[in-house]
Amino acid sequence: MEKREPRLMIVSAPSGCGKGTIMERAFKENEVFYSVSCTTRGPRPGEVPGKSYHYITTEEFEKMIAEDSFLEYAKYNQTYYGTPRKPVEENLAAGKDVILEIETQGAFKVKELRPEVSSLFILPPSIKELRRRLHKRATEDEETIEKRVAQAAGEIAQADKYDYVIMNDDLDPAVEDFKAVIDGIRGEREPAVRFSPKNEEIKNMIREVLEN
Ligand code: 5GP
User: What is the ipTM of this complex?
Assistant: First the structure.
C-alpha cells in the first residue's frame, strides 16, 4: 500500500460521554499513538499513572509551560491539562497516527497550530442522561457534578465546529460510528460524511441535546 502522511486527530467529549470506553473498544493495541496528557488533578479510582495521565504538581506543570513543553494546555475546572509536545512530534515523525483526547479550548488551539488536524466530538444523548451517568460514576460530589454538567453544555454548544460529530446513545453503534470516522480520517475507508457538522441533522441534534 502507498505510504500516507501520519494523521493527527482530536477527540473531544464532555466527561461522562463514554469517550474512554469507546476508544478502548475501537482501537487495537498500538494501532495509533494515544497521547498521555499531564494533569494537576489526582488519579480517580481505576486510573493508571503514566497511562491515563501523568499526574504532576502545579509547580511542575507551570515549569513545563515556561519551557514550552506543551503542544497545548488549558485550565479546566481549576485544573491544568496539557499535551506534552515531544511524544506527539516524535510519533508523527515516525509515521504513526496520533490521537489527542482533549477538551474544546485545547482542540481549537491545536487546530490553529496545525490546520490539517481532524477533530471529532462525541455527544451524549441528552444533558439529562449525562447528569445520570455522572451520578452513576459516583466519583465526584454533587457540586462538582453540576459544574461538569454546566461545562458540558458549554462544550456541546461548540460541537458543530468539529469536523465530525457522533452521539453515544448506545455503546455498540457509537463504537461503530467512531471507527467509521477514524478509519475515514486514516484513509482506510471512505471518509464519513454523514457526521459532517454541515449537516442540518447534526445542528438539530446539538440543539436537542442542549434543550433536554
Ligand atoms: P477528566 O478530568 O474528566 O479526565 O478530563 C477533563 C477534561 O479535560 C476532558 O474533557 C478531557 O478530554 C480534557 N483533557 C484531558 N487531557 C487534556 C489535555 O492535555 N489538554 C486539554 N486541553 N484537555 C485535556
Answer: 0.99
Using one digit for the tens of pLDDT, what is the confidence trace for 153-185?
Answer: 999 999 989 999 998 988 999 999 999 999 999
For ligand 1, what atom is nearest to the CA of residue 14?
10
156-160 contact pairs (CB < 8 A, 24+): 156/14, 156/123, 156/124, 156/127, 156/206, 156/209, 156/210, 157/206, 157/210, 158/104, 158/121, 159/121, 159/123, 159/197, 159/202, 159/206, 160/197, 160/202, 160/203, 160/206
Give me ligand 1 centre to Cα 81, in Å: 6
Grid coordinates representing 111 are: 487546530
Ligand 1, pocket residues at CB < 6 Å: 15, 37, 41, 72-74, 76, 81-83, 101-103, 105-106
